[in-house]
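ingest -> validate -> predict -> emit
validate: passed (alphabet ok, no gaps, 111 aa)
predict: started
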Amino acid sequence: VALSAAERAVRLRRTYPEAHNSRGNALLMLSRPNEVMEAFKAALTLTPRDPEVYVNLANTFEATGRFTEASTASSAPSSSTLACPPRMSIAATYCKSSAATVRRSRPTISP
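emit:
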């Protein structure tokens, strides 16, 4: 249901970054990593300074075992150039710390 709603939103308004971000989150829950990356990258094209999209992209890299890329995504753009809400700062910090180690308790998805 979430995926179909997000895909409909993307079809109706391709320039709406939140629709692409929502689509990426729905695809992540369905373990479809290639499409997830495509959705989050589309969102970043439309809103390149949105920390939520970077956190989602970092989580996707982490879930697929791409820890170096997860660390890079979680730190770009730097917090000094953004006014990140506290919840986003906490999420980015988590991504940075968890990307450094393999977390066996977290599910992974195949690339």
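The first helix runs from residue 2 to 12.
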